[in-house]
Amino acid sequence: MEYTNLGRSGLSVSRLCLGTMNFGPETSEADSHAIMDRAHEHGLNFFDTANVYGWKKGEGVTENIIGNWFAQGGTRRERTVVATKLYGSMGDWPNETKLSALNIRRAADASLKRLQTDYIDLYQMHHVDRDTPWDEIWEAFSVLRQQGKVIYFGSSNFAGWHIAQAQEAARTRGFLGLVSEQSIYNLMTRWVELEVLPAARHYGLGVIPWSPLHGGLLGGVLRKQREGGGSRSSSGRSADALEKYRDTIDAYEKLCAEIGEDPANVGLAWLLHQDGVTAPIIGPRTVEQLDNSLRAAELKLDAAVLGKLDELFPAPAPNGSKPAPEAYAW
C-alpha cells in the first residue's frame, strides 16, 4: 500500500480510504470487524465515518461498531487514522445539529465515547453551516484541539468559496485550518474540477472523493446485470442514471475489458491520477469486495486510456480543459 500526506499536513494516510457507511445497515458488526482487520492486513490505515452513519437518529450505530473494534486492542486504534464528521441531526431538539459551538462540543464528546477513544484524528464538517459564523466555529474547534480531543480538521461538501472563507477565517486566528475536503467526485460527476479542486490545491487541502463509483454505475453494472447481479444500481437514482447513460457506461465497460481491468478499479485508479486527490473512499460490504479494490492502488493508466476516459466522460464545461473561470467564461 502506498501512503501520502493528507494535504499540506504531515499526516500519512493510505491512498485508499475505508468508508464505513455500510457498517450496520448493510454489514453486520462481526463482518464489519473482519473488514477492518483485513484493511489493516492490506496496509489501509485511513478509515472514514460520521456520527449519523447507521441512520438511526442519535444512536451513532457505525461509530459504535468501530469503537467496539478499537476496544479489542492489538494496536487497532494506534494504527488507524480515524476520520468522523458532524453536522447532521442527532436528535429532535434544537442544537443537536449543524455547527454551533454548543453542538460541536456535544457532538465531539459523543463521538469520542462511541469510538472508545480519547482523540479523533480528523474531524470533518459534513456540510457548510450558513447560519454559524466562522469565528464561532474555529473558536470551538481550537478548544477541541487544545484539549487534545481532535488533531486535524476537514470539510465535506463545501463549494470552493466556502473553502476560501474557512481558510481565511482560520488564518486571522493563526490556526492551521482545514487539511482536507471530502467531495463527491467520479468520472460521471466532475463538477469539483471547476472550483473545489483548484481551491483545495491552493490552500493545501487533500481531496477525499466519496461515491467514487457513482453508486455502483462505474463498477461493471451492465456486466453484473448480465450475470444476474447489480441490484444496488437497479433502483432509484442509480436506475435513472443507468438508463440515461447506458451507452456511455457500456462503452466504458468495453474499454475496461480491452485493457483487462475491472471497471471498479479503473474508476478508482482514474481518481488517483487526478492532481490533488489523496484517497478515494471505498465502501466494501464484504471482505471480498475490499480485497478486490486493492488493485486500484497499483493500477497505472497510460495517456491513451486517460484520453479515452475523458472522451467518454468529458469535463463539466465546453472548455473544461481550462481552469475556471475560463472553463465557462471564454
TrEMBL record:
Secretion signal span: none
Q: What top-level branch of life does the organism fall under?
A: Bacteria
- All copies of domain NADP-dependent oxidoreductase, residue ranges: 15-312
Pfam entry (one): Aldo_ket_red
Q: What is the recorded name of this protein? A: Aldo/keto reductase
Could you tell me which species this protein originates from? Lentzea miocenica
Its ancestry begins with: Bacteria, Bacillati, Actinomycetota, Actinomycetes, Pseudonocardiales
